[in-house]
Amino acid sequence: MTNGKLITFEGIDGCGKSTQVQMLSDHLSSLGYSVVVVREPGGTDVGEAIRDILLSVELSPCPETELLLYLASRAQLTRQIIFPALNEGKVVIADRFADSSTVYQGYARGIGMETVKKLNAFATMNLVPSITFILDIPEEIAAERMKLKSKDRLEKEGTDFLKKAREGYLILAQEEPERFVVVNASRSPDVIFEEILLILKEKRVIQF
Questions:
Q1: Which of the residues 49, 91, 92, 162 could staple to 139 if both were Cys, CB 3.0 to 4.6 A apart?
Q2: What is the b/e burial string over 17-56, where b = at least 16 CB atoms within 10 angstroms of the residue's CB?
Q3: pLDDT of res. 155
Q4: What pTM was computed for the model?
């Protein structure tokens, strides 16, 4: 049992996760919380090396290899960074975590969500976030937002892949409504952030 809180942000590429992660980190830090921000894949020397492989447009790993690489990065991040921070009572905010693999490799790639959930449990030592925000946005809007951005391998998958991933996230939200909170990410960042703070307060994840 840990004293800290793990707050994760999920959603398809272009939904605005990184912006909300930064806003929440800055806000909680201003209130005196000790905050650790992590991202997936990456967050450790091992994880960043794996990230370079996973996002390279020059490589084409099969879905199973892709999944195992994500799991390896996640296992390192969990043991090296997340658990030590939680044990020290810190708030860990993650830009993606295990649910990303359940959706992208389990659902969108077709490996199977239940299979990936079991492998995630092994990689994370059964760690479950205190709360997970799914920033939900239509795939067309997400694609439009990313038009001018230099895309990595996964971002080049196209609208159909984004649509499949979005479906996967909404399935997870239906399966675990007590943990997942679906937030309309089509709105302005400030409006989204105010809703996130309200939800954290209502669910008593963080004391304000």
A1: 162
A2: beebbebbbebbeeeebebbbbbbbbbbebbeebbebbee
A3: 58
A4: 0.94
